[in-house]
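Take a minute with the sequence and fold tokens given here and flag any structure token that looks odd. Thanks in advance.
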Amino acid sequence: MTQIFYPDLTMTAAVGGASGRDSAYFDAFANGSAQWYHMPQRTFHGQYRQHVVEEIRFLALATTSADTPHTKQLDKLWPVKKVTLRPLNELNAKHAGKVSDSTELYYLFELGKPLTLPQPITHVPHRPIRNTMRLTTLSRLEQAKEFCDIESVYQNALAPAKKL
């Protein structure tokens, strides 16, 4: 039996950088045709506990803002169909925008058709990706105008601090 605290759990995150990636990868996020999003397992586990990845129902993925190119914005909400954990070298250019020979483990999110947010959420930081990651809900996301306004949920799902 699995307990789910938020049936509309939404994670915000940024689409990766352009370095070495095919422009078609970014075009797919811009025009709403993207079918995949990937994230390093270590990045996710740096923020959240393992069980949370299976509870995420939506991804709000930040892309570079047309108005303010030094920041990103959230304007689409992607339903999550399925999440798998795979080595990066098993992901193709459609999955990741480029191919790699790395065996590092990545979460691969299969995406449904996106919904458009009523208003874009602006001022999402560019880097690092951890600064763009938040767990929230659909209603909380709809109330935000800027990224700093997004109310987080699920504080008990935060990853424990690492011991030095």
